[in-house]
Amino acid sequence: IIDVMTRNVITVTRDTPVGEAQRIMQEHKIRRLPVVDGEGRPIGVVTTDRLERIKPRAGTPLLWQINYLLSRTTVGDVMRKRVVTVKPTDSVEYAIAKAQSARVGTVIVVEKGKIVGICSTNDFFYGIVNTTLGIGESGIRIIIIGGGSGKPAEKIISCINKLGIEIKVLWAIISPTIKKNNLVVHLETEDASNVIEELRKLGYEARVVAR
């Protein structure tokens, strides 16, 4: 988890006014703030959604009184007290499973009782999915029908290597129609025609797929 977590975590205490917490979130463009005790240990999480739910709407009767009460409301009054924590050495898979089990979108990374990082669903998405799929990377992507199992994949990789084209990312997906694993390969090239032709000679159907 240490590879995808956000470091230098901004925190608040349970006594922080909700208005101050909201200002911090807006200033730093974040949606979640861990709440810590006097020892720096996590005791809760406050989110923009929770703060939005307690804001009065324009035209609300006695609006000034509500605003006065809100000015005296602290993070401790609205925070989610259930904190899901993981260690820096825990796997991403473990952290995601733990977050899903608790139905939360954030896990706090703790070491020796202190917060060293935070991971949200966005961190998981951008840190893992983007890297796995090569999103934002240059090159072209092809799919080879039925090429995602052991021996076929070996032949396909060997064929591409002989052509001197770099394989940036590859993964297998199950085809619902032919009940076989297809192989998706992200190549460091802008023209995959020679790769597709050589794979055709080996008996594989391959085509460029949109990115």
From TrEMBL:
Keyword terms, alphabetized: CBS domain
Domain CBS: 5-62, 79-135
Signal peptide range in chain numbering: none
TM helices/strands, residue ranges: none
Protein's UniProt keywords contain Nucleotide-binding: no
Organism of provenance: marine sediment metagenome
InterPro entries from the UniProt entry: CBS_dom, CBS_dom_sf, Diverse_CBS-Domain
Protein name (database record): CBS domain-containing protein
SMART domains according to UniProt: CBS (SM00116)
